[in-house]
Structure formats: C-alpha cells, structure tokens
What we know:
Layout: H1 3-40, H2 44-68, H3 75-107, H4 111-141, H5 148-179, H6 182-203, H7 225-257, H8 261-288, H9 292-317, H10 331-365, H11 371-422, H12 433-457, H13 463-468, H14 472-475, E1 497-504, E2 509-515, E3 520-524, E4 527-531, H15 534-550, E5 556-560, H16 566-570, E6 579-584, H17 588-593, H18 598-601, E7 610-614, H19 617-623, E8 628-633, H20 649-657, E9 659-670, H21 676-689, E10 694-700, E11 703-712, H22 720-728, H23 733-741, H24 747-751, E12 754-757, H25 758-765, H26 777-785, H27 791-799, H28 813-824
Parallel strand pairs: 5-6, 5-8, 6-7, 8-9
Antiparallel strand pairs: 1-2, 2-3, 3-4, 9-11, 10-11, 10-12
Helix pairs in contact: 1-2, 1-3, 1-4, 1-5, 1-6, 2-4, 2-11, 3-4, 3-6, 4-11, 5-8, 5-10, 7-8, 7-9, 7-10, 7-11, 8-10, 9-10, 9-11, 9-12, 10-11, 11-12, 20-21, 21-25, 21-26
Amino acid sequence: MPAALRRQLNLPWLVLLFIGSGCAALIYEVVWLQLLQLVIGLTSVSLGVLLGVYMGGMSLGSLLLARFVSSRRNPLRVYAVLELGIALTGVGVLFLVPWLSDLYTRFGGPGFAGIVLRAFVAAVCLLPPTVLMGATLPAIARYVESTSSGVAWLGIFYGGNIFGAVVGCLAAGFYLLRVFDMATATYVAASINIVVALLALALTRSGSSTPTPEREQPVEVANTPTGSKLIYVLIGLSGLSALGAEIVWTRLLSLLFGGTVYTFSLLLAVFLAGLGLGSSAGSLLARMLGRPQWALGACQFLLTAAIAWSAFAITQTLPYWSGETAAPVNPWRTFQFDFARALWAMLPAALLWGASFPLALAVVTRGQPDPGRVVGRLYAANTLGAITGALLFSLVIVPWVGTHWAQRILVLICGGTAILAFAPARRSAEPGAALKLWPRLAGAALVLGFAFVLAWSVAPAPWGLIAYGRHMTSYGDRLAPGVVAEDHVPPGGNPDIFATYVGEGLNGSVAVTKWTSGVRNFHSAGKVQASSDPRDMRLQRMLGHLSALTVTNPESVLVVACGAGVTAGSFVVHPEVKRIVICDIEPLVPAKVAPMFAQENFNVVNDPRTQVVIDDGRHFIRTTKEKFDVITSDPIDPWVKGCAALNTLEYYEMCKQHLKPGGVMSLWIPLYESDSATVKSSIATFFKAFPDGILFSNDDMGEGYDAVLLGQVGPTAFELDAMQERLDRDDHARVKQSLRNAGFPTMYSLFGTYAGQARDLEPWTRDGQINTDTNLRLQYLAGLSFNNYIGSEILDEILQYRRFPEGLFPGSTGRTTALRLAIMGPDKSP
C-alpha cells in the first residue's frame, strides 16, 4: 500500500488519539488546580498563578518542540513519547505535592515573596507535564501535509482534543472525583495517556515517518511576513477575549445556577463543546475557502454580536427563567436545566472562537516547510493571549469596573480583531493605491461603530442576581428597582427588599440588602450568608460566646470569614480578649460590608484590638506562626466550590496545631440546603479531629436550621457555678447583654442548645464520609443536596441520640437540674 494512502487511513485514528489526550489533560487540570490550591491558597491571586503556570507551560511546549526535536524524527513516535512523559509526570505530581506542601508551610507567607514562592511551587509541579502537553499538537502537525486538506486535518485534531477535554471535564466533575478521589482520577488520566501512546506506536508500523510529496499544490499564503504577524496578534487577542469571557460568564452564571463543583464543570464543558464544534466547522471552511483570512475576520466580527447576545441572555433573560429550587428536587434534572441555559447563553460565542483557530492555522500554515514550527507559534500566541485574558479580567478588570464594563470591553476587543483580520497585508506603491485604501478604512469605521453600539447595549446584571442568585425569581416582585444607595427608600414603599450596597470584588460578588422590616442581609455566592435576623444573630453570637466562654482566659482569637462581622464582634465585649484577627478572602467584606453592621458587630473592624487579613483562612493558618486561644470559622456554604477545603480533616488538624493549650475551635454548619449524608460528613470529619467534640443546635421554633460544632484538644467541661460567677462579674455585663440581645437571657438558654457530643452521636455518624484533602467529598455531597430543605428531619435524626451529658456540665444540683430541664425538656427530665 502506498505510504500516502496509509497516512490518509491513519488520520481518523489520530483524531481518536487526540480525543483521548484531551480527556486526560482536562482530568489532570481539574485535579492539579484543586490539589495545588489546597497548598498555595484559594484566592484569585493563587488561581491566577496556577492558570498562568499551567497555560504558560503549554505555550512553552508548543514553541520548544520545533527548536529541540528534529522534523526528521517520526512524528508518531515523538507524540507517543510525549504522552508517556505526560503520564509519568502527571502521576509524579501526586507524590511531589506533599513534599512541596511542607516546604511551602515553612517558608510561605503574604506579600510579593509569598507570590513568588507560590509560582515556584506551581512551576515545579506543573511545568514538566504541561510543556509536554503543549508539544503534542505541533508534533503531530509534522505528520500531515501543508496543503488545504492537511491544514484542515490539523483543525480537526485540535477540535478532537477539545471534545476529549469535554469528556474529561464531565468525567472528573461528575464521576471520578465525586465517587473516588484525586489519586484515582490521576491514575485514570495516566492510563489514558499510556493507551494513546501505545496506539500511536502501533500506527508507526502503517505509515512513513515524514510526509510524502503533496498531491495537491501547496497554496501560497497571500500574506507577507508582516501580515502573518498580524494573524499571530489576532489569534492572541482572540484567546484573550475567549478566556476573559469565560471568567466573566462563569462568575455570573455560577450565581444563577449555584456555585457548586457541578456548575463549574457544566459551564466549562459547554464552553469547550462550543470550541470543539466551532473548530470542526472552521476546519471544513479552511479546506473549502481560498481566502480563509476573510472567514477569520467574519468570525471576529460576528463575535461582537455573540458576546452582546451572551451578555443580554445572562443578565436580562436567564435570571427570569423559572427553575426548580424547592425540595424535593432531583439534582440531575436541575443539571439538565442548567446545561440548557448555559448552551443558550455561551454556545454562539464559543463556536466562533473555536472556528477562529483552524482558520488562523489555514492562513499561516499552508505552504510552510515545517508545519510543526508554525503551529507551535500560533498555539503559543493563542495560549499567551488566553493567559493574559484570564489574569487581566479576573484580577484587574472585573474588580475594577465590574462584569458590566468587562463585557463591553470584550465586545470592543473583538471589533478590533475583526478590523485586524481585514487589514491590508502590505502597503502598495502602485498608482491609485491610496484610493483603494479608503474602502478598507470605511469598512473598519463601520465595524468599530457597530462594536460600539453593541457594547453600549450591554446592560449590568440585576442586583437581585448578585443577592439572591437562583432564588431571584422567588423575590422578583419584592425587589426594589433603582439606585443602590445607603438606606434607599423604594418608590412608594411597595417592594419589601432594596439594596444598600452591591460590589464585584476580587474573589466574588457581594451585596447588602435591607428589608422594610429593618432586617439587613449580607449576600455572597448568590444567597444570604449573614443577617441581623434574630435566628442568624443567635447563630453568630453562639459561635463567638460559646467559644470565648469555653476558654478560661481567651486572649487571642482568629475568626475565619468576616461576613457581617457579628461573630467577630462577639469577642469585642469579652474583657479578656486582647487580639482579634479577622481573615477573609474578599477585601470588600471587611471594608464595605462589616461597617454596615457596626451596631450588631460592635464596630469590630475599627476596634484597636482587631487586625484584618485578606487571605483565605486555610492558607493563612498554613503559613502563620501564631497560635490562638480561639479559632472560629463561619465560611459560606459547603456546596460552594472550594469551601469544603475549610472542612477537611487536614484543615482541622492544622487548626489544632495553632491552638494554645486549652484552646478551642468552633465551626458553623448548615442543616438547611443539605441532606443527612452531607451533614453526617461535616460532623463525622470534625469529630474525627476532635474526638470529644460537641454539637449545639440553632433551631428556629423547634425546626432544624443550623448548628455549631465545638472542640478542644482534650475533654471539655463547662463548670456551671464558675460560669455563672464569671457572667455575673461587672466586667462581663456587656457579654450578658450581648447574649440577651441574641435571645439567650440566661446561661441555661445558651447551653440548652446542646444537641449531642461525639461519643453519643457515633452510631449516627458512623457511615459519614470523611472529608479529606484528597477527596473533598463534602463539596460533592453538598452540591447534590443544596436545593433541599429538610433541616427539621436532619435535626430530628440527631436529637434521637441526645443524652444529658453528666460530665460536660458539672455544677451544683440546682444548676444541673435547671440545665437538664433546658436541654431535655420537662418530658425527659426527672
């Protein structure tokens, strides 16, 4: 069989190999980013460092292949070696991260030096495999001919790689990490790499090592070198706009769908599917068209309209589509609804971005002696643009001007790239050349004007979306329109809710609202996270006062997650407290939100004893050398992606190492928007770290709502007589008043919230899945149950195991009898 024919028969097999390669690559990406964020932090800066290194490695690999690997080597063997190298280094990351974690814990910290160390850790782990990943497409480009059909196959390979990435994204997010753990997912990805490598080696037996003389006459590129450089700039800007849009749309849609791990997997899968479909269509166009540069320009021009459409859909239509948010809800039906909404909003633009890459390939590759070199450069330009877009929009544009202006900027960027695609490749000295230039200038002006009109049409996201997310339609007729201003009174006084502050920050979007009843609410992740509502005030004061009263002399306190500041403010009134450290991941919360609750939080952020640290709590605890008498944690819900990292066994062990002798840790857990499996996982994990841990319930008129977990390194004992004596002291008058304001008029009403301790609840928590750094099981469980409202049923299950804890509350007979009555009720008291 002729070598050229054998090669043609091999090409469909190569598409399958690229599908497998893309699948493995996305599994690795999900695992590595999740694993390394546990080490270097969950902030946008840390994520930016990880994405920069990850995509930078791929860009570097695409450039280095042509420089260090001769084009005379068999492309399939080179590809096989690269895949085997990815498998080896990918598995190596699992064993390297624990060692680097210890190194980072010893030397990591805030500031520029800390960012440099984060980049070092990311580079050591990610550069070896990502450089190899980036080299795969340029390597296989040498296998095809530099003709119209050959270039089209390159686009199909690229599209196949993206389709594989879709499969990998869904497999990792919905199965491998939900059912197993990061190690299992890594081994699956490595196995795929090995199979791909073996199949590539098998194909070397059926095709020659280098392309045969082309049957088709190579189509010479119409561009001069200057024109080709413009295409590199264009595809770089295209990558910038694509990743910038993904950042913006993911932020908005995660508010609308709920920011679970499943939502992020769905959104990424939809975006990648659009890129893959668009790449396949672009490959066919590249083969049929004589001037693919015009099609490339048309894609960029249409992107201006597609981005405007996405902005309109996300902010003006999708928030008003009615979805299922009340229990009982089948989560898989919810995923289908979210998938349809994501397609409606994101697919048009993703198709056009996907088509742009193979069309750009067709412009710069055909007729080139080494397609691998040119493909590598173009891929590098696209990836570098994507890195810039991800960092620029996540760290600068969105925090600076918000998602509204970010989408306007994206429209204008695509208008500029359309003009760039249609720009003349070179200046001509022929007579009348200047006259020929005027139609191009007029066309550029029209394109730019059209882009400005579309950009101006982009509307901001409704503040109800930022505040209430997926529940916005439930509050739609109660939201006050108009200006967001402090104590803004709604026109006519009809709506029940109005916004006093809305902000889009570095790590998330937040809002403060006020009901006409006077209740203020702090919103993050598209829901209320704290408020001045009595039941929330009870919980927030419980976290603070129970923790402070457990310790004889609580001098130093760490509060993880500021929220409305009420928990942190509870420590202000304790006379023993000399230092309060508030650690929050979002700068807007302590700067803008907490001061709006100054009355409820005793103006804690301005208290001279308070230090505010902008960092995620896990990273701060990992890197600080300080120890505390109290560590209390009130993070947002565990179903929010990343928050389960503040509920792992390893995190609790770190907290224990930063407690002084006799110190205490307390933690908020929700019973609402949850199910038994999720709550069991939360409680079982905490009790594994604190075997003498205690659970206090914050119920709402006997109905389950949320709870407080409290633990010390050793056994805990509340000496009732000494406790009452302490509360009766003059210097604790403000403590007693704070408790009364929260609905705890006596010591008995506070400790009467006791719901159980570890040894009593062991039969119920026995089958609870332990949430660890390697599985982050809690966020997968919570993400399936966050539309449930069965808190009362969960509390009833827990209270079946409640017994009066004789050793926990020692004291005089009268006081223990009174507390027994408060805990067990008259029916179960002697």
